[in-house]
Amino acid sequence: MKTRLSVNLNAVAYLRNRRAVPWPNLLEVARAVLDAGAHGITVHPRPDQRHIRFSDVRDLSALIASDYPHAEFNVEGYPTREFIELALSVKAHQVTLVPDSPDQPTSDHGWDFDEHGAMLATVVRDLQHHGLRVALFVDPMADAPMSAWQTGAERIELYTGPYGGASDPRSADRALSDLVATAEAARMTGHNQAGDRPALQMNAGHDLTADNLPPLRHAIPDLAEVSIGHGLTADALLIGFPAAVRRCLAALEG
Q: Nearest to residue 211, comparing CAs of 174, 164, 243?
């Protein structure tokens, strides 16, 4: 199975927003990464619009629809009514729901399904009714996939922060083992259950780099998609966005 690469442009927008100038140009960077072979674009608009602005979401959606019809547009965020309306208005291909509070600097944990499962099931049905695929951000815990599957979502996004941010090989190995166990649980969803819904597909994201992608891809070969922003942008500062994208693609294929 080929794992697709979606490039998160939040870091680029954050750099742009430091000044009252229109550069770096988000649409030009999107063109550069898609022309280099990335399979899609990810954005995470937050209520304060401190990086991706709502207008950016609309502009990127229009760019993909007109010039890159085979690319995927993934919009992620907390399911406020404003966020849901934005995702529906731009006809995102995938909506990734994350449990962020407005003041969080980045996503750093998955959903608590005991607390939010009923709400998520309602939101998932609403988005799917309009033809959008839904992924839920989950911690690397073996019981999370079944809880996500029970909401009706088609995918989960494995939170890879503990793996990507590990400070030593032992910590990375432990974190990878947790991800592998969660992936195995995701494969089992849909088995021995009433109905004919398929098992969850799996995305992954957070602190992924060209260096730590190969072990993850080897351990979970059926990953559908990885979303990479910060690490790829850090590489791009040294080698440029096209080269950084090609480096990640090579890591996924290695």
A: 164
What's the rounded Cα separation, in Å, for the pair 73 and 204?
A: 16
User: Residue 1's pLDDT is what?
Assistant: 82
User: Nearest 5°: CA angle at 179, between 175 and 184?
Assistant: 150
pLDDT in tens, 133-169: 999 999 999 999 999 999 999 999 999 999 999 999 9
Looking up tokens 């890159």, which residue turns up?
68
Please give the model's pTM, rounded to 2 decimal places: 0.95
Residue 215: alpha-carbon gap to chain centroid? 19
Phi, psi of 144 (to 5 degrees): -70, -40
- Packed helices 230-239 and 241-253: angle between N→C axes, nearest 10 degrees: 120
Which residue bears the tokens 């991800």?
179
Which pLDDT belongs to residue 197? 87
Q: How far apart are CA 120 and CA 128, in angstroms?
A: 12
Task: Give me the active site residues, please.
Answer: 44, 76, 206
Q: Please state, as a whole number, how many other Cβ atoms lie within 10 Å of the Cβ of residue 108.
A: 15
Domain covering 4-253, topology? TIM Barrel (3.20.20)
pLDDT for residue 56 is more than 70: yes
d(CA 61, CA 38): 16
Per-residue pLDDT at 67: 98
**Nearest of 56, 55, 51, 66 to residue 26 by alpha carbon:** 56
pLDDT tier, 231 (very low <50, low <70, confident <90, very high otherwise): very high
Q: C-alpha distances in angstroms, 223 versus 18, 145, 210?
A: 35, 14, 15
β strands within 131-242, DSSP E: 133-138, 155-159, 201-205, 223-228
**Whole-number mean pLDDT of the chain?**
95
